[in-house]
Every structure is written in structure tokens, then in C-alpha cells.
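Hi both,

Apologies for the delay on this - the queue was longer than expected. I finally got the zinc ion-bound model through. Below you'll find the protein sequence and the ligand SMILES exactly as submitted, and right after that the C-alpha cells for the full complex including the ligand.
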Amino acid sequence: MKFIADRTLGKLAKKLRVLGFDALYWGGGNLEGAAKAAATQGRVLLTRSRRVKEKAEGFQVLVVEANDPREQISEVLAKLKLQPPADQFFSRCLMCNEALLAIPKDEVEGRVPDFIYRLYDSFHICPRCQRIYWPGTHLQRMREELAKTIGE
Ligand SMILES: [Zn+2]
């Protein structure tokens, strides 16, 4: 399932990316473009505005009620009955929403801190922003938090 989040739901979009979902963020105030993307790309439009839902044609709208991003992600997963598989977690760039690509260890030398380079063998790169990801301890903590959120 793919998403597009309106400008009030940027943190929710990032959390969806952490779980491996394709989640665009629409930063504009006018939702016409977001509605078009939802309709043509088969995305669920996430919004906090009920009016958007009333006017929506040709795409699915989910009105998010919770205020806290952590509750919002639970709400979206529950309402859509989604159970994202753990092996999809951290498969996307949190900044750009691009799917990450595996990159050989020798190509990241000098591009990540030395201790990180020595510590890990598995690295991924975002094809758009070139940001390099590795399985760090902060990711472990996020995984635990997410596991709690989605009740695994
Ligand atoms: Zn990126």
C-alpha cells in the first residue's frame, strides 16, 4: 500500500517509511496535486481534514484523528489492517522515500565514520540523496519502539 501525507502529517510519513512503505509527503497547502497523485498513483491520501474526504473522488482518503505521530502510525495500521513485515523495515530513505540499494563495503570507506566502517559489513545507500545507512544502535532502538507500536 502506498501513501501520500498532507503537510500536517510529515512525521507520520517518515514513520511509514521506516516501516518500508512508499509514503510521499505533500508540503503544499493546496491538496489538489496530492489528490491527483493519489488518484493516478493509487496512493491513500492521509490528512487531518474531513472536508478532503468528503470531496475525494477516485482515491482513498484516511482521516487521521490522533495528534501524536506514534499514535498516528498505530491508527493508520489499525484502520487499514496493515501488518508490515519486519524485513521491510528500514528499506527506504527516511528523507526522500527512495528504496535503498545495497552498496559494497569497500565503496563506503571514507564516506562513513571509521568506527562505523569497522563495525558493520552491510551498508545501503539512497540513490537520490546518496545518504548511507547502516544497522546502527539507533536503528535497533527504533525497531524496538516500532515493535511495540505495531504490537509484535
Ligand atoms: Zn535519500
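Main takeaway for now: The chain has two domains: 2-87, 91-134.

I'll put the files on the shared drive as well.

H.
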